[in-house]
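Quick check before the chapter quiz. The format below is the same one you will see on the exam, so make sure you can read both the input and the output lines.
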Amino acid sequence: MTEQLSYCRICAAACGIIVTVKGDAVVKVRGDVEHPISRGYTCEKGRALPQWHHSSSRLDAPRVRGVEVEWNEALDHLAGILSAVSSADGADAIALYLATGLAYDSAGQVSCGMWLSSVGSTSFYTAATVDNAPVLVASEQIAGHPMLNPVWEPQHSRLLLLLATNPVVSHGYGTTLADPVRRLRENQAAGGRIWTIDPRRTESAALSDEHLSVRPGSDVILLAALVRELFDDEHCRDALARTCRDDEVSRLSKAVLPFDLDAAAVATGCERSDLNRLVADLRERHGHVAMFCGTGSTMSIDGILVEWLRWVLLVMTDSLDVIGGMRFNRGVVNQLSPIRAGTDPLDGPKSRPDLARVAGQMPVAALVDEIESGRLKVLVITGGNPLSAFPEPDRFRQAVSLLDALVVIDVADSELCDLATHVFPATGQLERADLALAEQVAFRSGMQFTSAVVEPVAQRRPVWWILGSLAARSEHPMFGGAPIDSLSDEIMLRGLLGHGPFPPDEVIDAGPHGVNLEPDYGWVRERMTPDGFWSIAPEAFCERLAQHRGPELGLVMVPRRESAWSNSVRFAGSGDEPVVLIHPNEARDRQVVSGDWVAVTSAFGSLVATVVIDDAIRPGVLSVTHGHPGSLTGTLTSSSEGVDSLTAMPRASGLPVRIEKLGM
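Here is the expected output.
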């Protein structure tokens, strides 16, 4: 048996691992104690990589309409369809959806954009408009670029606010957090305080100094009230005066005027004294504040306002782009530069003129409309399952039958593959080399590399090879026309490193332990904003705040993550049964007990789940795992009603629901 260093690519935390291999069998995965960031930590998903790698669900051969074929036959068949569709309907009739499962396949992710460009199509969809669009829209409006993202520095931070996020399970949202429990405790030991704002006493809340169990949907009123309160603080006013235009500061002040701490106490259901302590912490730790939000807020109504007000609080407390607050990573491969003034945005979906693109991406909420209207004829899906992520999964299931081709590129079989005309088996993470390209959210400023741990078996191929081979059958080949079989993972990755601050050899030789890029401070406001000021009060956000309604009455649903799952994929543990968490009071009122089956119903549909009674969740709230293939939470959401016009996001958190006991 041999051991090889690598890093895990299930999520963006990129924890260092040691993989034990016997022949072509992956025997064991354990944490690498020498890894400078994860320090020996792995989660249960990472430790279960051997079982996942050898799973019977792995795809091994291409399929065309359910029949296994050789690669040349499959690629030739699809290339013929692509050529015919492009000629008859235009290149934009060919779309690609890039999902989270491909987000950490560095060469594959980059190749998706290259392939779509080679086709000439602008029909690019990603998972961002499923759960993350408010983050991108707020960043672009305030700082000038959608990919700018504040990163927590626990060695400097003295106050961390976790709003509707649970990094102990998710490993960070906005800041990747390997070894999350130890990182949080180390921050506290150094004098930091942590507040969790969440309707459930999550694993992260249990470690926090303070927990506000707020009503879902009250986040906007709470944050607006905090901003209003901080306007009375001289240090906060000075921070705004130095970094923002006077007219925007004035507009912001007027926008938050209707929101005070008394209103926030009513909306959140929290004690006024608790909110006073939070304000005191913000004032006392001026210059050392950090905050990140999660899908509990981004997927809610007015999630864009939560993200905006998060930036406002960071700016007011002089905690953005400075030592002591939150930094921005410059990047090694993904080096950001200002968006050129006067750049015309691409058109949005013609079937949904009410929705615009987000960061150049078409909104997922419009994808089925584009198919039903006949504008999309080919859909390529890489690393994801719209059936478990999109609103109205039954409608999606029916719509794909209208396509000339539904192409699935993935590592594992699924119901989606059964619907596909073409299925292409991709290499798994242990079968490919990689770079850690989630740079803008990375805990470390730098880069790490891994070679493949084992050779791919059967007919599995890298995603870049699949797309490059497809493009080679057209008039617009990728990779400069180089023969596909002359390339390799490492050649592809060296190309990505070619314009960065490190020689490719230095990054490759450093391996999974990586190289560090010295953090930089002040560069965003200096280089990325048009005039050196944060655009702190976009008119569209202020207008939306004036229309904000506050939390819904009655029982509402919020999403959560599970430690053994990554979205719709279970990597560890056993049992695929969907579970709904409810408070004992709700269970008593509805005469249900743990283990009962219930129907959870919204205005748009229903799902069935098993009850687990949990006093850690606030009364009036139930929680279902987002993306769980057994529950299909998309059945409770709509792609037309409640879609945010600023972010194109369907509403999937804070939804009014009712529950009904099923069976005897």
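If your answer matched, good. The longest helix spans residues 71-89.
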